[in-house]
């Protein structure tokens, strides 16, 4: 049993004699946080939110990412880092041979969270293959949390018939994450066609007046379809975390 997943389970183990007092005390020692030089890990987060802390790897050194992953694995038995470079991943795999790196999403993953009792489907839809990096970051984060990611790729509004052909699949999802650059129209179209909530992710993909994703972001914020949630530019991870909060609330 890892330190942080389930305090109730740990207490039941103590009551039943399966876990000794000293062992239980040691497991609780890393709550609510674990400290090491230059690092304070929120190991209590999984108890508060149902999801553990995730390492943001961009602008961090390989040593900083490694130390954070070691602390999270010790606390939870699994860990996830975003925006990890190919160069850093090679070194991290030597430390964590059980780990896995995906170059498209730039995620470095060690294990995964326990599969929930009720697995939900989160559809991850992207307008074009240029948006795949952000879409895969969202999909793989959903899968790290034990839920199912339904991938629907290359269905941008320039060829609307491609999206319409997948509507039955999308209607069956609990939540839809819609990833798009250029003018960012995909989430608005989707939200006008299906019942599940839509989380819009603008990407920095597009010609000059896309303005690094600002045009898509503004379009999604001013969507004609109502009730859309919008996250920041290229933030597939943030979209996945919002989707997971929705499915956990069911």
How would you characterize this protein structure?
It is a single chain. The protein has 250 residues and is of the alpha/beta class. The protein folds into 2 domains: 31-110, no CATH class; 121-248, Rossmann fold. Helix content is 39%, strand content 17%. The protein contains 11 helices and 11 strands. It has helices spanning 7-16, 21-28, 45-49, 62-76, 86-95, 132-144, 160-164, 167-171, 186-191, 214-221, 236-248; strands at 34-36, 39-41, 55-56, 79-82, 100-102, 107-110, 121-126, 148-152, 175-180, 198-202, 229-230. The strands form 3 sheets. Strands 8-7-9-10-11 form a 5-stranded parallel beta sheet. Strands 3-4-6-5 form a 4-stranded mixed beta sheet, with helices on both faces. It has a two-stranded antiparallel ribbon with strand order 1-2. It is globular. Mean pLDDT is 90; it is low at 1-5.
Short description:
The chain has 250 residues and is an alpha/beta fold.
Main attributes?
250 residues, 2 domains, disordered N terminus, alpha/beta, Rossmann fold, 4-stranded mixed beta sheet
Number of domains: 2
- CATH top level of the largest domain is Alpha Beta
Number of helices: 11
> Termini, distance in Å?
26 Å
Fold blueprint:
Blueprint: H1 7-16, H2 21-28, E1 34-36, E2 39-41, H3 45-49, E3 55-56, H4 62-76, E4 79-82, H5 86-95, E5 100-102, E6 107-110, E7 121-126, H6 132-144, E8 148-152, H7 160-164, H8 167-171, E9 175-180, H9 186-191, E10 198-202, H10 214-221, E11 229-230, H11 236-248
Parallel strand pairs: 3-4, 7-8, 7-9, 9-10, 10-11
Antiparallel strand pairs: 1-2, 4-6, 5-6
Helix pairs in contact: 6-11
């Amino acid at each position: 049993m890892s330190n942080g997943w389930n305090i109730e389970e740990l207490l039941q183990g103590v009551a039943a004699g399966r876990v000794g007092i000293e062992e239980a005390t040691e497991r609780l020692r890393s709550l609510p946080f674990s400290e090491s030089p230059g690092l304070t890990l929120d190991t209590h987060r999984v108890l508060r939110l149902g999801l553990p802390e995730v390492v943001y790897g961009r602008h961090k050194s390989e040593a900083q990412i490694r130390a954070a992953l070691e602390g999270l694995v010790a606390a939870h038995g699994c860990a996830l880092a975003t925006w990890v470079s190919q160069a850093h991943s090679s070194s991290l795999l030597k430390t964590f041979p059980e780990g896995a790196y995906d170059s498209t999403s730039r995620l470095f993953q060690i294990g995964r969270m326990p599969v929930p009792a009720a697995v939900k489907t989160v559809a991850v839809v992207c307008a074009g293959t240029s948006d795949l990096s952000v879409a895969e970051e969202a999909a793989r984060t959903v899968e790290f949390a034990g839920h199912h990611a339904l991938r629907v790729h290359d269905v941008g509004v320039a060829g609307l018939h491609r999206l319409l052909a997948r509507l039955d699949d999308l209607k069956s999802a609990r939540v839809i994450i819609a990833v798009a650059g250029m003018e960012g129209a995909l989430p608005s179209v989707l939200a006008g066609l299906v019942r599940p909530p839509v989380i819009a992710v603008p990407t920095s993909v597009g010609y000059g007046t896309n303005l690094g994703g600002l045009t898509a972001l503004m379009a999604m914020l001013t969507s004609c379809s109502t009730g859309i949630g919008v996250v920041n530019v290229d933030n597939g991870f943030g979209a996945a975390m919002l989707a997971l909060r929705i499915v956990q609330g069911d």
